[in-house]
Specification:
Length: 300
């Protein structure tokens, strides 16, 4: 009796573990991502919304400066205005993050993907790495471009940079619109964290895709977390809701981008930017770990 053995020259390709398996899976996921038209549509929307809304909102607020009261001028945040497009982009990245997973479950191609990879967690890691890298790069480029576009709009309206060391009181009393530089206190951090916020939301959406394995369900859950959950919390008694509002993902994202003031009418005093980023990262890890656990235990 003889034992059949695989030819030596195909053995390396039959093994799929360690770094080689992840590297090959990343190539596969990148090919899938860039070959789908919806990917490019979503990325174009992120860029267009980020820059376009920045210019529009900044232009509107700059035109209202002369009519603003002291309280409104004190909360005038040119950096936050320049990142207004983030409100729309957060839903776009959620749709894209969910669909790169759920589309394979819808067509059944996930079975082939899992069958050709010895470790299911490698598939999860590769998808997160590819979509995360793409969204992070596009979001950061858009965030910085939006900042400089917003700054240009303020300058076009006669805005001027306040002297170094100026306080909020100086901003309130200023007859001209305050303009900040990227090197001013908090500006660089806020713009950078805007891209980080969209990255973390993308990973959460991707994790929800693996957990729910259904496009409508994953997108609905994502939108519910960002929009519906805050509405539910707001209708609860204030003594109860005040303890939770600042920990909601959408308010964490706002805390990461604000520069002028951390006090809001709807969530009280928000967390500090890095604390908010850290907590949102913990949420992301929790969702991804649950997704990985379910991916390993369930059938395709």
């Amino acid at each position: 009796m003889t034992t059949a053995t695989a030819p030596a020259h195909i053995a390396p390709f039959a093994l799929d573990h360690g770094r080689a398996g992840l590297r090959n899976q990343v190539r596969s996921e990148w090919t899938k991502l860039r070959s789908v038209r919806s990917t490019w549509i979503c990325l174009v929307i992120i860029v267009a919304a980020g820059i376009g809304l920045s210019a529009l909102v900044t232009n509107i607020e700059a035109g209202r400066w002369a009519h603003l009261g002291f309280a409104d001028r004190a909360q005038f945040d040119p950096v936050r205005m320049s990142q207004t497009g983030e409100f729309l982009s957060q839903f776009v990245v959620g749709v894209l993050g969910a669909m790169i997973v759920t589309s394979e479950y819808a067509t059944g191609s996930i079975r082939t993907t899992l069958a050709t990879t010895s470790r299911r967690t490698t598939v999860l890691s590769a998808k997160l790495l590819v979509i995360g890298t793409v969204i992070f790069l596009v979001s950061e480029v858009t965030a910085f471009a939006s900042f400089f576009v917003g700054r240009a709009v303020l300058l076009a309206h006669g805005g001027k940079a306040l002297p170094a060391g100026s306080s909020i009181v100086d901003q309130v009393r200023s007859a001209t619109i305050p303009v900040v530089s990227i090197t001013d206190n908090g500006a660089l951090r806020a713009v950078f964290l805007c891209g980080v916020y969209l990255l973390l939301l993308t990973l959460i959406a991707c994790g929800l895709g693996f957990i729910l394995r259904h496009t409508a369900g994953a997108i609905s859950a994502f939108v519910g977390i960002l929009l519906v959950l805050p509405l539910i919390v707001n209708i609860l008694p204030s003594s109860f809701s005040a303890s939770f509002e600042k920990f909601l993902p959408s308010n964490l994202g706002l805390a990461m981008i604000l520069v002028t003031s951390r006090k809001t009418d709807f969530a009280g005093i928000l967390l500090t930017p890095w604390a908010a980023a850290g907590l949102l990262a913990l949420y992301t890890v929790a969702v991804v770990v649950l997704a990985g656990w379910l991916l390993v235990r369930r059938d395709a």
